[in-house]
Amino acid sequence: MRNNRAMAPHRIAVLALDGVVGLDLGTPAQVFGTARTADRNPPLYAVETCTPGGRPVRSTAGFQVLPDHGLELLDSADTVLVPGIHDGPPLVDGTLDPEVAAALRAAHDRGARIMSICTGAFVLAAAGLLDGRPATTHWAYADRFRRLHPGVALDPDVLFLDDGEVLTSAGVAAGIDLCLHVIRTDHGSAVANRSARRCVVPPWRDGGQAQYIERPVPRTAETGTAATREWARQRLHEPVALPDLAAHARMSVRTFTRHFRSETGLSPAQWLLQQRTEHARLLLETTHLTVDQIARHAGFGTTAALRQHFHSRVGVAPTAYRRTFRPTP
Hints:
Elements: E1 10-15, H1 22-32, E2 45-50, E3 57-58, E4 64-65, E5 79-82, H2 89-92, H3 98-109, E6 113-116, H4 120-126, E7 134-135, H5 142-148, E8 153-154, E9 160-162, E10 166-169, H6 173-187, H7 189-199, H8 226-233, H9 242-249, H10 253-264, H11 268-286, H12 291-297, H13 303-314, H14 318-325
Helix pairs in contact: 1-6, 6-7, 8-9, 9-10, 11-13
């Protein structure tokens, strides 16, 4: 886990290429720019944009991007992020300007974190940074990606994938999810939740959630499961079971499960586990409760159950996670 608490902000270089997706380009500055340990503290990230040669590039939104930097920005960036593109050789034949590829590989080799949003994964793959790795991209481009880059372990069914120093995400909103995931990894849930509130987006969507959730007809509050999800969030410390959820929604278990999955992309059990883990994560960061107390407050019941599920989803034990964000004086 990273814990970038140095005085200087973490430097993020956004590499824009011809055909860059306008929303993807603006996402990093918007999301990372709101990250602060407290509302009045300095920003934790500094986001700058570059292009090959510092030249203007076309966006898909009908405007050109005039950057402040060329590829030399990648030489000193802590993180390099490539937004999606809707045109150009990386999408057409899987190739990349040798100068751009070399700059990306050099940044990776010196230890910079590498990220992509949407079809930015085509750029990383063309630079050779995804060979043998798990990665994702927008589901609509999955077949093309597999054809151009058979050596990449593509998973088009998830919102984002964190493979350590290389992270990829699906389209548009999934880029926001990935940025919030990085903030949470770097600085904890409280900071990430504050950023999400500033951006008026959900604070947490698990990376393993399905990309494509079918919603043929918008549901009203009376027929959807949103009210029941909020009801369950207020009772994470209680043993809420599937029949309880269905009864609150005034549906049969079978109907409730079908509606729930169509709205969230998860089963009720998976969603509850996600919410309990996130609540435990926040308690570990912000309270002095013991791990045993947190296990009860988050609804895991036993410390052993908390340890098992927390390690499975977060990658470390609860005590190790707490030491990262609440170091012993």
